[in-house]
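User: two proteins, same treatment. go.

Assistant:
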Amino acid sequence: MKNNIFLTTIITLSFIAFSLFLIREISFAQNVSIGVYPPIMQMDTTPPANPKADFFLTNPSDQSLELSISYKPFKPKGTKNGEIELSDDLSSFPDPLFVNRVKILEEDEPVKSVVLSPKQNKKLTLELQLPPNEQKGDYYFTILFSSRPTTNIKANSSLLYPTIGMNVLLTVGPKGKTEGYISRFSVPLFVDSGPVVFNVEIANRSDHFISPTSEITIKNLTTGKKDIVSLLPVNILANTVRAIPDSLQAEVGSSEYEKIRDIVERQDSPVAVYPKKFLLGFYNATLNVSLEETQTKFTKSITFFAFPISLLLGIVVLLGIVVFIVLRVRKKIS
């Protein structure tokens, strides 16, 4: 009996010790993270040039991290939501040797790795050295920062080695003409109530990326009242089509965003949402798009009708119940 108790105690203590060790390992792994700002860098230059741009790396963890630096080109994934996929094929660049002209500077010195102390926010510089004969076109690439803790703690979790990337959109000019069009602007012809979902897609037929500004003006044709839905100025890569969401979706976590969160999450691709709930009558919606600040502008208008049938049916049902109760009461009284 005593032997059984002793054996049970040993097994229990061993399990607790292993659990504490596992928790410690997982906790350690989850505390390793990296931040980069800005996450997307845009550059526009005409060779010969030596453009530079500062960015910041942040280590919010409690241990030092050594970050190795590497570069990978990326291309659009084929979807309309801005997704990209990394590639090892440097031939996707207009100049396959372009990556040799990219440098990361720390205090004006080229580096291939960076060490971040705990809680440190370090400024680095991206430098490009473009010769006069650099091939014109767009260069899309990601600068990858892959970390390994400088401490000698052993662990098998891959979470110990996080990687973060900063996407770079570079146009080597001179740029060609900015060309594009509204490839889709639609809304249901009839809506019962808001919020109202608009599908907005803009095609970029330029040889360089663009960041169009756009908005939807919604006018109640009965009352004349107008509302504006601002759209996000997203980047549209050369010769691609992108669905454009409203700017409210950039405020994730805000009370206004929570009003449309469920609608946004149900969609297969980004949409623009007019958050007003009670709608009645005919509405005209006009999409205004500026591909560049001083270049081509496009507009497109559509009409939809709103009538709160669900609310009306609810009122009818409620009135029916009230009438039924009144008639029953009168019948009993009589």
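Protein 2:
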Amino acid sequence: MEKLIITAAICGAEVTKEHNPAVPYTKEEMVREAKSAFEAGAAVIHVHVRWDDGTPTQDRERFREILDAIKEACPGVILIPSTGGATGMTPEERLQPTELFPEMATLDCGTCNFSDDIFVNDMPTMRAFGKRMIENGIKPEYECFEIGHLDTVLNMAKKGEVPGAPMQFNFVLGVNGCTPATPENLAFLVNKIPAGSTWTVTGVGRGAFPMAACGIIMGGNVRVGFEDHIYLGRGQKAQSNGELVAKVVRLAKELGREVANPDEARVILGLKK
């Protein structure tokens, strides 16, 4: 098997300090959490940004400030800014980080229930996001929350509406209202991706570490972090994103997978020829 790429999603747009005081808002807190994850073994940091009061934003300059600070603190790390933002944001708002020409960014692959909210990604929105990423030379990480999302984005790739092979997928399982985090659902999705693709699994909430174990065993990659879950174990809140990453590293060691550094991850993801 190839080495394991670990992604840390360090804050998201929904989780707050009320859920876990270690959730980062400020630039300094974002750098602290990114560095803790990087030093623990994460090759990739998935980035949402907030204003200092915790309000989610897709502001381009806020992204620039945070991304530059993380790059300085974590030399060589792969950064994947979010174009998902928060529910209710317009496509124009959400696209702002693509104006910074990151090497990767997320591209959400369809509308879905998101607990009590609706996360809107209609076909015109997806086409606009795909066009921007093609124009700006950005490799998408295709975020699939539902089984139909995968079929949708594969059809779009065939039409040239989004970047094609090699494709990187992130299967986000366990969101309330979306596809449950089960080994069967993950196996179904993985068996449908094109040859030569890479994939990551994100287990939300209680599904975090069971899905991580599945990803490690099945030869995929793993995402953990405060965006998706805040507990290291039952009733034990993680003190940092680094603790969550370190647990995945321990699982990988026990299950016989080596962990990729950023340079190795770039080769696996097709970012470096």
